Sequence to fold (590 residues):
Amino acid sequence: MKHIPLVVGAILFSILFHKQGIGLNLSIFSLIALGILSFYNPKAFAKKSTIAYSIMYLVTALSVFFYNNALAITANTIAFITLVGQVSEQNSSIYVNWLNGIYTSAAGFFHRNFAVNEKKQVVESKDPIDYLHLTKIIIIPLVLLIIFISLYSNGNPFFNSMIKNINVNFINFQWILVAFSGYYLLKNISQPVAVDPATSTDKQIDNELHYKKSLTNDDIMKEHQLGFILISALNFLIIIFLSTDIAYLLSSSTVSAPEFSNQVHSGIYALIGSIVIAILIILYFFRGDLNFYSKNKSLKIVAYTWMLLNAILVINIFIKDFQYIYFFGFTYKRIGVLVYLILTIIGLITTFIKVKNLKNFWYLFRINTVTAFTIMVVACTVNWDSYITIYNLNYAQSMDLDYLIELSNNNTFILKKFEEEHILTEQKSRAIERKYVSYLRELKDNSWQEFKYDNLKIKQ
Amino acid sequence: MNIGRTILRAAGLSFMIFWTIIISEGNMPIDAFPFILLSIIPIFLCCTLAIIFTLAPVYWFYEKKMSAQKIYDIYFPYYTIFIFLLGLSAALITKFEIVPLAFIVSAFFTLLLCWRWIIKPPEKVNYENY
Fold:
């Protein structure tokens, strides 16, 4: 009986994905996967963290239906792996969840069924498959169903015509192979497995720093001196850099696009270098005993100052990027810069918490990975192509229409409306029209499995 | 570890999986049959190389240091994850075309089953019965 949800899931998997593109099918599969996971692992779903990851997974599934872009599909796949890993072990870090999720999805069945007999040193099947029972649960219901269908068909003409209209021509050998793949995947995730020793080691490592007394008092004092001089010198350097940069920003009124681009991107490279080195240096000095040194207050102050100055550097780049966007419109690269800056600010805040609350390196790694994952899930709920187009057409001081035409089909209706309301060059009008017609054809050709939100906007 | 036997079994299995997937697509001309048979040669070579260069070294290196269970527990998951990600990347690059996909799927399942076969030691003769 326990196989029935998996068999039903496998049949649905093949109906959804055999010879189909991505659309509504991935969203429905997300619901099936969630159903299978919760049906076979109810205890894991009693945990709040599992429920949170399930909600995130559903959010990405909805995004796939609404936007059907690469970001939504990637986010959905990563959310699936995360959830499967979370079900396998609820108390592990997110990156261990990924490891467990990938392993479970790829080879959970092999892991569960081929354990090694330690005495014989032989791999043997742990759970022999009861083929007789399996045949029974498929053949008996099938035969009975056919008998009852023929009985009901004779008794009810409407039912009879409905049965005759059912088309099963889509089932072929490849369809069955896809169903097998679906069964394999669902069977794998039905009982998620954990990769050891990675999972058990991760569970043993907490987020706190512990006093080990690995350095003598003299060594700690020397390290404190080195750290203080180094970070103070770097503070001085970053102050000079920021003052000259702000002075330049205030003095120059009109800047060309290439100049702006150069400023933002060189600023980003400087920022990447600065932040990475900042965090590495802080991690080095605050890796152990120096955290517990009674006279470390001055070192902590210069470290906090450096984090603050780096945050100001981030804000400086934010302003430049926003100016760049205001004058020349949104592009994916400029949005990428904003995302990077948000991640940097969060990285600096978590580093501050690490130093202040005596946390270890794993705390930083764990919290920053969860943050990056959450930002990805949130980012996939935004129709970027649509917002880029709306902003650039209506608010940007200048914009590149060719860039907007080259974006995905998510902005097609906005461009079409713009083309109808404005006088454009013939070449651009034709390019928009071509994009619109081709997208309409694509939407009309979509099967129900490939259905997406834009299908609802057009008259069939 | 009986490497020769494992390679033969792996070649047989991957041959079956590969052609099952290709044939499922349909449109297979009848005169393609000799080529199907000949394909056992490259499949055998691929299996030999994959087993000799990826699986066997793990056992040759660790078989005296730890038990079969330990080798399996420690290396099988990471090996699987690596092979899976490699296969997934290749499938994405080739846009899920049927021939590369058949190769990837057959390679993946064959290598996973090879782990089961390869750590099975040669059976010892029980001299007490003589």
The mean pLDDT of chain A is 84. The first helix of chain A runs from residue 4 to 17. The beta strands of chain A are 114-117, 122-125. Chain A is about 75% helix and 0% strand.
